[in-house]
Amino acid sequence: MKITDYTAVLRSKVAVCGNATVGKSALVSMYTSQGQKFPKTYSMTMGVDIILAQVPVPDTTILVELFLYDTAGYDVAKDTLAPNWDGIYYAILVYDVSSQESFESCKEWLEELKKARLDRERPLKAVLVATKSDLPAQRHQVSNDVAEVWANANGMEFFAVSSAPPGLNVEAPFTAIGKAIHKNYEEKLTAYQDACQNY
Amino acid sequence: MKDYAREENGAKIIMATSVDDRFPPEHMLDGKDSSFWMTTGMFPQEFVLALENPTNVSKITTLSMNVKKLAVEKSEKENSGSFEKVFEVELASRGDRLQTEVHQVSIRAKYLKFTLLSGHCENAAVNRISVVGEPVGS
Predict the structure, then answer these.
(1) pTM of the predicted model over 0.80
(2) ipTM of the complex
(3) Which of A12, A189, A197 sits opposite B42 (nearest CB)?
(4) If contacts are CB pairs under 8 Å, which of residues 80-99 in chain A contact chain B?
(5) CA distance A145 to A149
(6) How many CB atoms lie within 10 A of CB B94?
(7) Which carries the bigger pLDDT value, residue B16 or residue A34?
(8) Handedness of CA B100, B106, B108, B113 (dihedral sign)
(9) Could you give all domains of chain B from N- to C-terminal order, each with its CATH number?
């Protein structure tokens, strides 16, 4: 679809969190470049990179622009991140299938994100992403089943992906977040339309 | 008193930062409280209202939903790139009910820029704007 064919553009901030070296930036890069750019050498993210990702909502003429807050995964940086999450209600939590520790850390990241919400009444909508799924089975430390159970128990969808070219399932987590933002917007619209009927 | 912010009186929205074809910014100029322009996420959001002619404005009214901080700026000249602040105000939350904000002013304006600096929720809406005054020179 051409950009002029869209009838609405929705925008929202989305946090991308997870331990260092799990592949947050590689995932984002593969998505935003449509599979063209996989970083061949490791580049440590300092603080926060803000990247724009465009997500067409399936079966609609609506485009969602995600302002991805790709955050540094190092512990030392954790305290400095919260101010960037000001008003964030969407998140992509990332772990590496070959690191049990990175999966465990997602639980902490989830709590940090919940704490950072401005409106504590409002739920945080997150997805859980397992990267490096293309690694041979003997290197997997976290089973997809265990991860999916934990994700679902916390109201999250789970996606196993591989960012290494050609890429596997890379679009799915972004599409899921885009759909959630679209749903939230349509609900607000309906509420406003109902409220305005009497004016 | 004539409302200069009505489409039939020559007013136009010449810029708006949110697009949803179902809820265009022209909805703010149709004189109805029931139709609205919807902001589609994140703040600030802005729109610029062009009056047909430079006008001595005495009252600016906005009807909105879930707007928190609102700033209004004006520009007098036909081709001016700069705006001067008229007022800035914080609106109380009324849930999904209409917020009515009336400001008595004494300014001359051809363009009025409305900036929604923040909202009470992710998406705010503006139902109507009204600009009352006299044509310059009357």
Answers:
(1) yes
(2) 0.91
(3) A12
(4) 89
(5) 6
(6) 14
(7) B16
(8) negative
(9) 2-135 (2.60.120.260)
